[in-house]
Amino acid sequence: MFSMKTKYAIKALIRLAHKRHNGPVLIADLSVEEGIPKKFLENILLSLKNEGMLASRKGKGGGYALLRRPEDIRIAQVVQLFDGPLAVPSCVKMSMVRSCNACGESPQCGLRLVMAELKESISGCLDRLTLLDLVLESEEPVFDPVI
Amino acid sequence: MFSMKTKYAIKALIRLAHKRHNGPVLIADLSVEEGIPKKFLENILLSLKNEGMLASRKGKGGGYALLRRPEDIRIAQVVQLFDGPLAVPSCVKMSMVRSCNACGESPQCGLRLVMAELKESISGCLDRLTLLDLVLESEEPVFDPVI
DNA sequence: TTAATGACGACTATTATAGTCGTCTATATT
DNA sequence: AATATAGACGACTATAATAGTCGTCATTAA
Lengths: 147, 147
Ligand code: SF4
Ligand code: SF4
Prior knowledge:
The structure is a homodimer.
Chain A: H1 4-18, H2 27-34, H3 38-50, E1 54-57, E2 63-66, H4 75-83, H5 111-128, H6 131-137
Antiparallel strand pairs in A: 1-2
One iron/sulfur cluster binds next to helix 5 of chain B.
Chain A binds a DNA duplex through residues 3-5, 26-28, 37, 39-40, 42-43, 45-46, 56-64.
């Protein structure tokens, strides 16, 4: 469903969100805490930085930090960054890239309906979710003291 | 999104549904009409037959035919046959196979929410659609004669 | 000046997909 | 029975994507 890059990216973002009031986080720390191969994580964080979601600082005391608020980071954007645009057929008009395939795009092609509906479902879901939702979900559950 | 096998399978099923009152359809014909490599289509149809959706007859006058009614064939079943079960994380309890990945399945993993919601969206969509829906969609539009 | 730390291009290994080939088996027709 | 037709089926290949590694360079704080 998702590539490892996407999954690692989301996990790293959640971790960075949790730590965002403690100054920059080292790649090495993130790598250990989330069990992500360090060199691989490097690439991923760099992409996220270029996307404008993270800031970094080199040298001693450096590291990565969240640049935008968790509620302003859509999961859809992360997925799109690593797994590319949702592979919607070219006949379903959107600025999406990969064509569904060699079909002449006949207006009666029966695949269109599935593709279109699925696209609605998925992007509806991913557009709605933000990093904040995931952060809240992954927090330690609060124990209500009885009485 | 879908493998070619899945897409070809759906297209072939639609075509077979359209022709289902005309006796068995040759692989060769389906292949030409839908632009599917013949040998490849062979495998696909065989899988669909083993799944109980199609019947076949060998020899002269043979070919493939739809075994169940279009409204009884769920698109989800076709997708699952060729692309395997939706890759839902093992932590989201369902009888799904591929694990999301080496994570210890901590109850606080933030990925769970995305995976679970997405799974709902997608399988909701694919479970709802049947072959009949696609067949209707791909029929020639009826021209209402004015007056 | 130096140790820490991110940046970045090139490389590799593994796997999945898409598709092909050859041969065998079943059936209808004559 | 003979033959042409048509599906069954296992083995094979080519290509591309994914997941990840390696080496080196650039920047910064102390
Ligand atoms: S195969 Fe059908 S759904 Fe896909 S691009 Fe062509 S017309 Fe659209
Ligand atoms: S990584 Fe998270 S979502 Fe995936 S299986 Fe593990 S706990 Fe579940």
